[in-house]
Write a structure and sequence with these properties.
GO molecular function: dTDP-4-dehydrorhamnose reductase activity
Number of strands: 12
Enzyme class: oxidoreductase
Strand order of the largest sheet: 2-1-3-4-5-10
Mean pLDDT: 96
EC number: 1.1.1.133
CATH class: Alpha Beta
Domain RmlD-like substrate binding: 5-291
Number of domains: 1
Helix content: 40-55%
Shape: globular
Strand content: 15-25%
Number of helices: 9
CATH superfamily: NAD(P)-binding Rossmann-like Domain
Low-confidence stretches: none
CATH topology: Rossmann fold
Protein name: dTDP-4-dehydrorhamnose reductase
Radius of gyration: 19 Å
Distance between the termini: 34 Å
Order of helices and strands: EHEHEHEHEEHEEEHEEHEHH
CATH architecture: 3-Layer(aba) Sandwich
Largest sheet: 6 strands, parallel
Amino acid sequence: MTRPVLVAGRTGQVARALQRAAVARGVPLVALGRPDLDVTDAASIAAALAAHRPSLLVNAAAWTAVDRAETEEAAAFAVNAEGPRLLARAAAAAGIGFIHLSSDYVYDGGGNNPRDESNPVAPLSAYGRSKAAGDAAALDAYAEGTVILRTSWVHDPEGQNFIRTMLRLSQERAVIRVVADQHGAPTAASSLAAAILAIAAAIEAEGLAGRAGVFHAADAGCTNWAEIARTALAEGRAFGLKAARIEEISTADYPTPAPRPLNSRLDCRRLAETWGIVLPDWRQGVAATIHGIMKKSEEGQG
């Protein structure tokens, strides 16, 4: 791969993981955030593509403040819906593939079975509506060249996330109350980065060849937030951290401005069948994130 992968977004969890993975694999990659690349500004996007002449465009930029989106819906839609439309148009004009990251929040969370890509979107929140609108906008603009990866519960050593919060709270409290009736898979940003670079390599070698569309991409297995917390704190004990007791509560016991899906299980078989990609077990990702957080803490960066 001689021309770089261009990533919209520079400081988010997946963007950071992509930058680390690209260095490790020797893949040319440029990650840009504002003001160098503003996903809400067509001229900014065009200038970035002209400057870097990428082989592929990846959208890792997103409005992720789920609760704030309830009162700032227009701002969420600007980034999460209009951004993908403009990026997809730019990729189409450049004749390159476009990979867009989406969310389990596009679904309503009903039932107990994993969702596959044929399930209709039915978001419960403003954030979910903005992500669903972004998926539709990208496909409308460039259906033949867009790959959408819907994922869940992303975490990384470089970012604010549930795992980092649990480690902090466990040092401050004897008991932490954690929701146990929302089910899904925490997904390491490193898993997504590896999947994106594998897709990029396949597109470089073979083209999209009819493989565009929506794919679910989450780490393997299923759990709930309370079990994730227990797993994280057990890992933390190996580094000398205190482990608080986890008290399981229901979603109703922890109301939030934005409703959360109770069922975020994603069926990822289409990703495996189409691209040959299977993400690792969620426990592996959680352990890696804990190790990364503790390493940064020891280095004085966390």
